[in-house]
Amino acid sequence: MHSDILCTATSVEVGGGPVIALDRCKPWLHVNAVGSDLPGKTELPLAFLQDSFVCPDFLTQAKVEGECQQLSAQQIGPSIVEVAQSAQCYLPEQKHQSVFDSTGWALGDWFVMELVLEKAREFGLGELVALECLSEEPRNPYEFLTELGVDDDCCDSELSAALL
For 45-71, how does the pLDDT look when each residue is reduced to its tens digit (9 = 90+)? Predict the structure, then answer.
């Protein structure tokens, strides 16, 4: 592969990944992994992740449904917020393989939902439907797992089973 930057945005099925072989890429390849965010869905090969500086957007969420679900806590780097706040500290990582594990911020989704609901009410459109497992904390869509007794540091299979 001759790319310096690769963006993945697939909808691979559970267990269907990886979607690309990255065994012959540039040593400084950066991957923005944005697709297939669900327990058991992954896009990147484990060996590539293990050899890379992996930076999630929201660690709790990325460990459940992002590429980070394939890694141990020790193999996961700082969040994108930490990297942005201390950019100079991470400049050496530019010479190495890196992955941004983007699972999406639930806060952004919540904000857009509120805006759409406000406009729907204003124009008298749509029908309000109650949803199950609506989190009170928009930055943590898995907050309800705590109420179910699922430990945040449990293994992936236990967490996946709790979600299913």
Answer: 999 999 999 999 989 889 999 999 999
* Cα distance from N-terminal residue to C-terminal residue, the chain: 37
The CATH number given to 5-101 is 3.40.50.720
Q: Is the pTM of this model over 0.70?
A: no
Going by C-alpha positions, the residue among 8, 53, 54, 44 that lies closest to residue 23 is 44
| 125 vs 119: CA distance, rounded Å | 8
All CATH 3.40.50.720 domain ranges of the chain, comma separated, are 5-101
> By the 8 A CB rule, do 26 and 1 touch?
yes
Please work out, in degrees rounded to the nearest 5, the angle formed at the alpha carbon of residue 97 by the alpha carbons of 76 and 40.
Answer: 50
Q: Which residues belong to the active site?
A: 37
